[in-house]
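Notebook entry, structure prediction.
Reason for the run: the old model in the group folder had no record of what sequence produced it. Starting over properly, with the input documented here first.
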Amino acid sequence: MTTTLEFDPKFTALILIDLQQGIVGRPLSPHSAADVVTRAANMAAALRAKGGTAVYVRVELAEIVTLPVDAPTRDPSAPPLPASASQLVPESGHQPTDLFITKRQWGAFYGTELDQQLRRRKIRTILLGGVATNFGVESTARAAFDRAYELVFVEDAMSTLSAPAHQFAVTNIFPRMGRVRTTEQVLEALAR
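New structure, fully documented this time:
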């Protein structure tokens, strides 16, 4: 497998999933939330500088549809989340010129204007990062793959609740939908 990475920044979007207060504050593995957020902010700045699109996706936690499941993602007896839980963390580097998407499910395409906004910008390549690898990132990736976007999974700019869950997605799922690379490899491609 080659690790060379080439893409045209002007037709590339960095989609960052759920870098928000109510999610980034959870214990994550294998990469800490602080590392994921820092790497995401660095990539967003570099892509913006080359004419690319930074997309920040947040989930409106108070509006998530709850269905009967065996393993809820949130304890139903927990107190309500504060309003700030759905706000992006300032360290994520979001700028007013970035694209902001609010979702109410795991995936960023379902019930949002994301696909329309990307197509208007003639986006062909999507760089993906955020939290959580095997929930929001993977759900978004599957929908992007179905829509024929070229995908680059930035392995060290995403994390989840357990290292084995992260590793399974990165090793078994993502290589079948796109290319798995590091933040350093993405930044090197942008520097060329």
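Summary: The longest strand covers residues 150-159.
The old model has been moved to the deprecated folder.
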